[in-house]
Fold this sequence. Notes:
By secondary structure, the chain is mostly beta strands. The chain has one domain (8-89). It has 1 helix and 6 strands; from the N terminus they run βαβββββ. Strands 1-6-3-2 form a 4-stranded antiparallel sheet, with no helix packed on it. Strands 4-5 form a two-stranded antiparallel sheet. The longest helix is centred in the first third of the chain and has 7 residues, at 15-21. It is globular.
Amino acid sequence: MVTGEKQIEYRNPSAWLMARMYDTNRTRKAYTHVRFVNGYGRDKPFFVAKLNYIELAMKGGIVKFSNGLEVSYKQDDWLFHLGDITETGNLK
Length: 92
């Protein structure tokens, strides 16, 4: 994602994610950026990306990347469309 090739994050609509997406009155929270961290702790690699928009997948699929990574997603998974990376830290 830091290289810019993967610009969509695919997430299952889990209870954990839904609790972060909606207030207790079921109003969707407004986010402008997303922080991705690889692990726990202040010393772990991270980056922050602009969040362009969020949508639900209308159908499932598989996305393939140049490094061999394949990401599969299902209908009704959340698709987080990311923009520019605004901050990085602890990258090797």
